[in-house]
Amino acid sequence: MNPLQQLETCGQSPWLDNLKRSFVAQGGLQEMMTRDGIKGVTSNPSIFEKAIGQSDEYNGAIREFLAQGDRDAGAIYEHLAIADIRAAADVLASVYSETHGRDGYVSLECSPLLADDTEATVAEAQRLWKTVDRPNLMVKVPATFAGLPAIKRLIASGVNINITLLFAVDVYEQVAQAYIEGLEEFAKNGGDVSRVASVASFFVSRIDTEVDKRLEPGDPLRGKAAIANAKLAYERYESLFAETRWQALAQAGARTQRLLWASTGVKNPEYRDTIYVEELIGPDTVNTLPPAAMDAFREHGAVRPNAIREDVEGARIVMSELERRGVSLDEITRALVVDGVKLFADAFEKLHAALERQRLAHVG
């Protein structure tokens, strides 16, 4: 049993943070499910931009689609992305069935251009949910000011949601409350809460990148903020889903909204290339790993059950020390949400520009 497979024994589900048509079609995803215990897939605009916009792999599919009539770049993107999402969802259907809907999901992001528009986000998420038409789809909604009310409404309508771009513990708490409130409304309207799933994608490595910029070389707090922040989020998760209010939903079959560790690839070569997996192992969590991080952990990862619960008091001390030195996590996490939306929006627009060039080449 390799280290990736061992994560399941610790209550954690490894998901793959990558998606490409050939990878699914040629059996790569199925192989990782069998060999590594991979239980889900996440995508985002940057991943699709690399897969579609930076290769010729999709040229035939684009040509075939345009042969049916001219389409704009947005329609071409959606045609390609939805086909890939459906294919991955169908491969993961066995995991979805075996885990009774706890795992086996593939995520598709709402347009990042809608991140500051609640109504448009709700409409887009519901449309994608209906169009993909797979029970193991999760629609990604960002944890922006406009995204938070959209989460509650979408959960209340029975849509599976992956909340993305989460950096701050207090915002995570708002996300979890939105999930609980959405489930309560869904149940009140006669919905089966056991069929609704959600994860809260808590980003990790980007926090260390930004905090480290504000610390002197050699400072012992370098590389400590992201894991400390995640430990405090997990502590809050356990507290929220132990409350009496949640128990009523749990008795009706509802499942907790797991924390999903995102951005777990190590960006600083001075740090262990497996640190954001090893230090965040814990029950009822997901870690979505980019391919390089997955390879590293498979090869030489160390598995410590309940690592996420270790030295939580030390995590609080790290946060207090950062504040004492004038490093504001509040300012950093707010900026990271804005930057994250911009990065995805830029990738989205870059992909659309590439597809428009291909459209013109095919239709003249």
Automatic annotation (TrEMBL):
Keyword annotations from UniProtKB, A to Z: Cytoplasm, Pentose shunt, Schiff base, Transferase
EC number: 2.2.1.2
Pfam family, one: TAL_FSA
Pathway: Carbohydrate degradation; pentose phosphate pathway; D-glyceraldehyde 3-phosphate and beta-D-fructose 6-phosphate from D-ribose 5-phosphate and D-xylulose 5-phosphate (non-oxidative stage): step 2/3
UniProt keyword Membrane present: no
Gene3D superfamilies registered for this protein in UniProt: Aldolase class I (3.20.20.70)
Cited CDD domains: Transaldolase_like (cd00955)
Function per UniProt: Transaldolase is important for the balance of metabolites in the pentose-phosphate pathway.
Similarity annotation: Belongs to the transaldolase family. Type 2 subfamily.
Protein name: Transaldolase
